[in-house]
């Protein structure tokens, strides 16, 4: 079977690879370069923390499981680690999250200021005022490195990667069935099935097909520091800063409070004021046990894909049989499991029960 995947982020790349492993003839077309969308500016904390419903929790846990398998085969890489996560927020939220996590059997331990030095000496003692949570099973990944890793295997298996294809959309025949894709710069490609994995642009591509998908995507940014003297090994989520290690002894830093200050121009270019970036790094300095302030190497800003109800949208479109969609938040944690399960559905036509709650049809009025 010939399959076209539109979108060279982590979701498109993972699905393309799993389809190639299943023996499909796959072409991945993407507007610019691989990893030039949300996957190129993601905190990519691998986690199933917090008060999500059970079906979503299970999908995320399966996502982490597949990363552990990948890690076992690649224990020496500098772009995937399982050194745990530390979270703190206001006391009520910490206690509520911890109670939910314990009930589910998620590895969750309440910690206090005294515990920080023992868990990660790079965090300033006393940064946690009351309680925090230590989640030993969590990790992080650098998505551009993961995408390059998957792209290498995909190419070895005969998959075609077509970068700089410009805007690409599914072609639909007179019966309403997907039968190819057309790209602005690399022409048309006939195929049996199409997967749309355009990150935050998925909603606009669907709108062009007359299909509406409620969108909750938000502007976001990720800053990368220069090599830092003191780096926590854990992923840190705190009230004013979130950060994780990044290849090259650098740190990846972000936080939701910065998003109000992101400006997007008429060409879709997003910028963050310098004082906001400096403030974000200063928040990082407050939690790190070092006298050397963090220095900015660069940042990227743009839209983060978020379906309106917060849950992944995965599966075949009823309005365009043969055309599948994958649109999700937490796509770092979910990338490998979505690639595996959705890839199998596309290859075999057999629906996987774990994806049942996440079908695109849930937004259609009855
Ligand atoms: C700041 C930030 C923090 C995050 N933190 C986490 C986290 O801690 N944990 C977690 O699990 N997830 C996190 N995420 C979410 C996760 O990174 C995303 O869900 C994931 O990267 C989405 O991947 P994607 O492939 O769907 O989209 P993208 O990476 O955006 O890829 C889509 C690609 O499609 C291309 N494209 C778009 N339209 C077209 C078109 N018409 N034709 C051809 N190509 C097209 C784009 O150029 C892009 O390269 C975070 C995201 C951000 C931005």
Layout of strands and helices, then pairs:
Elements: E1 2-6, H1 10-21, E2 25-29, E3 45-46, H2 54-73, E4 80-81, E5 85-87, H3 91-104, E6 109-111, H4 113-119, E7 132-135, E8 139-141, H5 143-156, E9 160-162, E10 168-172, E11 178-183, E12 187-190, E13 193-196, H6 202-208, E14 218-225, E15 235-237, E16 242-246, E17 250-254, E18 263-264, E19 270-271, H7 274-287, E20 296-304, E21 313-317, E22 320-327, H8 331-348
Parallel strand pairs: 1-2, 1-13, 2-9, 5-15, 13-22
Antiparallel strand pairs: 3-8, 4-8, 5-7, 6-7, 10-11, 11-12, 14-17, 14-20, 15-16, 16-17, 18-19, 21-22
Helix pairs in contact: 1-5, 1-8, 2-8
The structure holds flavin-adenine dinucleotide (FAD).
How would you describe this structure to a colleague?
With 366 residues, the protein is an alpha+beta fold. It folds into 2 domains: 2-41 and 144-215 and 308-363, FAD/NAD(P)-binding domain, CATH 3.50.50; 81-139 and 218-304, D-Amino Acid Oxidase, subunit A, domain 2 (D-Amino Acid Oxidase, Chain A, domain 2). It is built from 8 helices and 22 strands. The strands form 5 sheets. It has an 8-stranded mixed β-sheet with strand order 6-7-5-15-16-17-14-20, sandwiched between helices. A 6-stranded mixed β-sheet has the order 9-2-1-13-22-21. The radius of gyration is 21 Å and the shape is globular. It starts with a strand and ends in an 18-residue tail after the last helix. The structure holds flavin-adenine dinucleotide.
